[in-house]
Structures are given as C-alpha cells and as structure tokens.
Amino acid sequence: MTAVDERPPGPFWRRGRAGQVFEIAAVPVASVFLALVVAALIMLVSSVITTGSVDWALPLVAYGALLQGSLGSGSAIFATILQAAPLVLGGLGVGIGFKAGLFNIGGQGQFLLAATAAAGVGAALATAPAPIAITAALLAGMAAGAAWGWIPGALKAWSGAHEVVTTIMLNSIAAALIGWLILGPLMAPGFSFGRTGDLGNSVLPVVLGGTIHLGVLFAVAAVPVVWWLLYRSTLGFEIRSVGANPAAARYAGMRPKFLTMLTMSLSGLLFGIAGSTEILGVSHFMTPSYGTAIGFDAIAVALLGRSHPFGIAAAAILFGALRAGAGLMQIVADIPVEIVDVIQAIILLFLAADVVVRHLFRIRAAGGIADITTVTSSYAGRAS
Amino acid sequence: MDQIITFLDSLPVIGVLFQLIGYLVATMPEIAPIFVALAAPIALGALCGIMNERSGVVNIGIEGMMLSSAFAAFLAAALVAQAMGPTTPSPIFGATVPILVGVLAGIGAGMLVSVLHAWLSISIRADQIISGTIINILAFGLTGYLNRLIITPNPRLGAGIFQPFAPPAGLVELPMIGWMIKGFFAHGPIAISVLFLVILLQVWLFRSRWGLRTRAVGEHPKAAETLGIDVIKLRYRNVILGGVFAGLAGAYLTLEQSGSYQDGMTSGRGFIALAAVIFGRWTPIGAFGAALLFTASEALRVAISITPPTGQLGDVMRFIPAEFYGALPYVVTLVVLVAAGGRSIAPAAVGKPYVREART
C-alpha cells in the first residue's frame, strides 16, 4: 500500500489526474498570488513615500493596467507572446539542466554570444538568398550558444569545477568577448556607435500580427520537443537518472561525464536559439551594451515551472505578460516597470520558502523545489 | 646598471617582459593607490563570502548584498543630509553625520539581506545557490524600483563622500616603502580599514576559538555538534556578520568612491569577490591578494591611459585590446579552478544544509 492510498478522499480537485496537477501546481500558483499581494503592499507603501497619502485603489488600478497591457487587446497579446518566447527557450535551458542536477547561471553569456554570432553571420550574408542567410545565421548562433554551454560542462566533467562558478566567470568573459568582437571585427562602418551591420535578407520573416517572427514558433516547438526528449527518450531518462542519483546512474552503465557535457551544451543551445532569434527577429543588430537579464529571468521561469516543459511554458507566459503590461502600468498608475523584477523575485522567495506557503494555504503536497536539491551538493568541487 | 637594463630591454621577445617590469616599477607609485581603491570593495565582498562559506553556507548573493547596501547607504546619507541642511565636515576624513549614518545604513542593509539568506539556507534549508540567486534578483529589482521612485526624480540628492587621508609627506617620500604607504593609506576610512579587517579576520579564523569552531562547522558540522557547538546558531551568526562586510563594500561604492548611485552599480564586483574567495582558497589574506591581482589588470589599463608605455612595449600593449584586461580576472579564476581539479579545496560541508538529529 502506498502513501497516496492512505489519504482520506479529499475534494474532487485533489483526486486522480486533477489531484496530481494540483499537487504540482498548488505551491507555484499560491506563490504567484502571494507575490502579487506583497507587491500591492509595496505599491501602497511607496505611494505614501512619494505622495504623502495612501491611495488604496492604486494596486487595483496598477494591476488593471497590467492586465490591459498584456491581454487586453490583440497587439497586447502579441506583445506578451513576443516577451515570453525567449523566456520559454531560456527556461527550458535552465530546466533541462536542473533535471540533470546542473545549474546553468551562464544563460546570459550563452544568449549574448549567440546573439553576436547570429548578428555577425547575418550581416555578412545580408545579400545572400534569405533561406541560406537565415539558416546560416541561426546555426551560427546556436553553435555559439551550445559551445559556450559546453565549456562549463566539460570543465565540470574533467576537473569537477562547479558549473555555478564557471558559468558566472564565463558570463563576464563573454561580455568582454562580445565587446571586442562588436567594436572590432564585426563593427559596421558608418554608424556613430559600435554595432553590427544591417541584416538585410537575414531578418526572420514575420508570421503573425506584424510582430510575431519565425523565432517565436521555435519557442513554441521547443516545449513539446524538450518534453519528449526528457520524458520519452532514452537520453532523457539518462539525463534524469544522472540528476536524481549520479552514482546509481553510473552503476547502470550511463556516463555521467558525457551526460554533463551534453546537458550543458543542450542548455546553451536553447539559450543560443533565444539569443539568435531575438537578434534576427526583434533587434536586428547587436551592440556591446545590449541589455538583457535573460540569465536570471530564465532561472525564475524554470523554478516557477518546476523544471517541467509545460510548467515552464506557463511560467514564461506569466512573466512575459508582466513585462508586456508593465509599460502601460507605468503610464497609467505611475508604478516603475522595475516592479516586475520585484514581483518575480518575491515569487521565487515564496517558492524557496514553500514551507511557509504550504502552511498558509494548508497545502499538503510534497516537493517544493526539492527536485533540484542536488544542485548545490557538488559545490565543494568533487567530480561526480 | 643602466647599461644592463638597456641590454635586457633590447633582447628579442623576452625584452618586452623586462620592459614591462621596468614600466611597472616606474609607474607603481602612481597606480598603487588606484590598485587598492579598486580592490577594496572586492576584498570586502570576499570577506563576506569567506564568513559564509567557512561556516558551510554557499553565498553567490554577494553581488545583491553589496548592491542593496550601496543603495541603502546612499539613500540614508542623502535623506539625512537633506533633513540636516549643510554640515561642516569634520577634519577626520571629512566625515559628516549624514555620511556616517549612511555607512551604518549600508551595514544594516547588508546584515538584513544576510538574515534572509541565513533563514532560507539554514532554517528553511532551501538550496543555497537558489537562495543566493533570489537575493541577486530581489536586490536588483528592489533597488531599481526604489531608485526610479525616489532617487531619479531628485537628481540633487547626495551627501558627498569621505575625503582621502593624506599620509605625511615624510613617509610617502621614504625610499622603497614610501609608495606602499601611499598606496595603502591615501584613501578614505573604508579602504584603509580593509587591510586591517583582512588581517583581523585571518587571525580570528585561524587563531581563535571562534575561528576553530567556524571551520569545524564548515568542515564537519555533525562532529562539531557532538562537541557541543550549536551549528545552526553559529552559522546564523557568521552569515549575518558576513553581511557587515558586504555592507561596507556597498557603502564604499556610494560614500567613498563615487558619491552617487546608479542602477546595478556593483557591476559584477560581487561575482569577482566570489572568484577571489576561491582563488584565495577561502583565506582572508589569500582573497585580498586575489582581489589585488584581479584589479591589477584594471589598474594596468588605467596606468596605460595615464602614462602610455613607449617603444616595443608600447606597440605590444596597444595590440592588446582593452577588453582583454576586463576578462583576465575571470580567465585566471577558471584556470585556477580547473587546475585545482577534483581535489576538494572548499570547506567540506559548504552547500549542505544541516539537519540536527532528533532528540530521543
């Protein structure tokens, strides 16, 4: 008799298939709700600081504008999708690492290097036929991202250097590298600032609504592909086995070192797709100061989505909606867009302190971020 | 002597190295203060990391702790300055009440964020790297939000900065060691204190009862607990004390170095500090050396822009892109990490939450 059977029958949403989903989703949903409440309190407090009086309706006005700006119209929904696409890809990248017990904080570097590679190759092939130019630029970006992800994987496999530290270092090295590339070999003449050349035919075609480019479809496709890879393929089984118990995986004849390198490369590849499609589809050129917080945002998405591809997709859409609606919220309610970062961080805080959340909402579900507790265990530098 | 130097400098290929050494010796008195000024916040951040990791708690949130402290220090100082009106700086470091309040606020913010990290990683037993990541995201978001709300609309906010100490001319002009005195002491109070804090922590960590207990808790908490050490309490205390150093690092940035606050102004210093902890093998003096080494490339870049090297060396230096110096600390850390290999150099229990066995 298993533990599940011993439970008294609960309400319908706690039984059967729905019960499983409830168990997994309860804590994340509760965390999002609590974070929105806390953010509302922050808005109230800050309105006291700036105006000297409490405007009790302010959070409602702000969240109303947020909703309006993210889901209120066709263009708002497109904006949300556009924001969510790189988060889906990055979230999958971090999530696939979590499944193997690896923590890729290097998404930023992988994204930026891929973006630079795609921008460079795309500009060089600006006059080539579009299918060739786009394919070559995308492949260059994907290769750059995968390579930058492979390095920490290889370092961990060969020497046991922990990927958290090495990816942080590689982020900074990538920043220096792209600075040199864009102000050096890849710099386009005739501009007042350092940037790569015009993309010409390498620009990704728009497939929907004037803004949704081909890269968004990649993000949509990546969700089932990664799900299949993780849960239906032998490789995915090996990745999850290594993450759950490296020693047992090795006894079963799997190769943890190879899988570490492969998983980090796949993670980098996903960030690479995100970086190159953002450049080829949205920005159309690359500068040394290209601003992105994708590395940390993707971690937030993966944690909220509990490393499951479908969860990650839902979390990415939520964060994409927050980002898309924040602009209107700033205009209507005078709340700085940075509140989105605050909300995101508070969600993570509640996820990490899931004991508190479960107590508050009487959620019995096990887990929390338990599926990634293997991440820190190898920090002291032992090879697996 | 001059002939020997000329001969060495004219050697093919290796000559450039001798020219570099000669150049460094010649410019060192100039750049030594820059060196220490750049290294100070990194060394302080590293001391925070050492306090955490020596007692068995991974801290990749140093960046976020420093950023919150920098913000809190600036805001507190500026608000007090606004409330008090003009004040006369004291003759010691040009300190004013607002600046001192700011430093205290910075330390307080560092400790407060550390309490969060301690609670998440010790009591809640969340993954410590996740906890650090959350702290970085939270600090970035919250400071960005408050900065936009409070500081950006009031561009005249500010409280000034500490004035650097001017060592007596007699000491600075001493042969051989004069430049070192200038390098270490021609600063404001926080940068000067770094040297003493490093030595103090080194002695504490390896020569005191507290240090022995801390290291025991970081290496083998269960054994420490058997000997009657309260692992949970000691870890809490050390993580929160570590926040003091991160707080000083933040206060240094806004109240001693720049006098203003910009979004994300720590710009990766917390991560270099993490690298310095590892490179310095979890010892304060080692980490301080690493911080100096890491900022050497930056200091060298400054030196080149002030007094460009001439001749063959100048040609070589101009050939190296400026970005190279920016990447050097990280490349060096990677090489060290890989060279250290699987050998465990970190405290053995770092990253592992401690679960006390139930009393029967």
List the helices and strands and how they pair.
The complex is a heterodimer of chains A (384) and B (360).
Chain A: H1 16-51, H2 58-71, H3 74-99, H4 107-124, H5 130-159, H6 163-183, E1 206-208, E2 212-213, H7 214-232, H8 234-244, H9 246-251, H10 256-283, H11 294-304, H12 309-333, H13 339-352, H14 354-361, H15 374-377
Antiparallel strand pairs in A: 1-2
Helix pairs in contact in A: 1-13, 1-14, 2-3, 2-12, 3-7, 3-10, 3-11, 3-12, 4-5, 4-6, 4-10, 4-11, 5-6, 5-10, 7-8, 7-10, 7-12, 11-12, 11-13, 13-14
Chain B: H1 2-10, H2 14-54, H3 62-84, H4 97-123, H5 128-151, H6 169-172, H7 178-185, H8 189-207, H9 209-219, H10 221-226, H11 231-257, H12 269-279, H13 284-306, H14 311-319, H15 322-340
Helix pairs in contact in B: 1-2, 2-7, 2-8, 2-11, 2-12, 2-13, 3-4, 3-5, 3-11, 3-12, 4-5, 4-11, 8-9, 12-13, 12-15, 13-15
Q: How helix-rich are the residues of chain B, as a percent range? A: over 70%
Q: Terminal Cα separation of chain A, in Å?
A: 35 Å
The CATH topology of the largest domain in chain A is what? ABC transporter involved in vitamin B12 uptake, BtuC
Name given to the CATH architecture of chain B: Orthogonal Bundle
Number of strands of chain A: 2
Average pLDDT figure of chain A: 87
Write out the strand line-up for the largest beta sheet of chain A, numbering strands in chain order.
1-2
The total domain count of chain A is 2
Tell me what portion of residues of chain B adopts beta-strand conformation.
Answer: under 5%
Q: How many separate helices of chain B?
A: 15
User: Strand fraction band of chain A?
Assistant: under 5%
Listing every helix as H and every strand as E from the N terminus to the C terminus, the arrangement of chain A reads HHHHHHEEHHHHHHHHH
The parts of chain A where pLDDT drops under 50 for at least 5 residues are 1-5, 368-374
